[in-house]
Amino acid sequence: MNTHRTFMHRCYQLATQSENEGESAVGSIVVKDGVIIGEGTEKSRQQKDITRHAEVVAIMNAAQHTASLTGAILYTNVEPCLLCSYVIRHHRIAEVVFAKHSGELGGTNENFNLLTSGDFKSWDAPPVVTLYSEQ
Q: Which residues does the UniProt record annotate as the domain CMP/dCMP-type deaminase (predicted)?
């Protein structure tokens, strides 16, 4: 989808910025109603705070601009980890679009499946997960 390309391009720009600052090359944005309402880059090393992943930073930034993130889309160049998946589910993000799986700690990993499981009674339905490809 062309819209995905535009938003993922912004994630790649943020990932480059993050890498240039000595962090992991991850950039994330939150989009609601077609508008970017939050952006984030990795800040874990700079702030000596392991919770400062790009996805969490983007979600917290977006939460400052809107009363609810229900129905929003999170774009990120790397699959959200378990920590980020919890935050995504808590804020009722409707869709997650990412370009690269992150391995054993990824939120869609079948061993943990925090991002995509419908088994959690405390949460609404899981977000739609879209694996982005340039093709």
A: 2-109
Per-residue pLDDT of the chain (135 residues; tens, 9 = 90+): 578 999 999 999 999 999 999 999 999 999 999 999 999 999 988 889 999 999 999 999 999 989 999 999 999 999 999 999 999 999 999 999 999 999 899 999 998 899 999 999 999 999 999 999 986
pTM over 0.90: yes
Tell the residue number behind the tokens 């944005």, with chain if given. 29
Q: Distances in Å between the alpha carbon of 40 and those of 54, 84, 89, 120?
A: 5, 12, 17, 27
Task: From 32, 95, 21, select the one nearest 54 (Cα to Cα).
Answer: 21
Q: Is 96 helix (H, G, I), strand (E, B) or coil?
A: strand
Q: Give whole-number Cα distances, 132 to 22, 23, 42, 47, in Å.
A: 25, 23, 20, 30
Q: Where are the domains of the chain?
A: 3-131
In CATH, the architecture of 3-131 is 3-Layer(aba) Sandwich (3.40)
The count of C-alpha atoms lying within 13 angstroms of the C-alpha of 94, restricted to the half-sphere facing its C-beta, is 9
Q: Which residues contact 95 (CB under 8 A, 6 or more apart)?
A: 73, 74, 127, 128, 129, 130
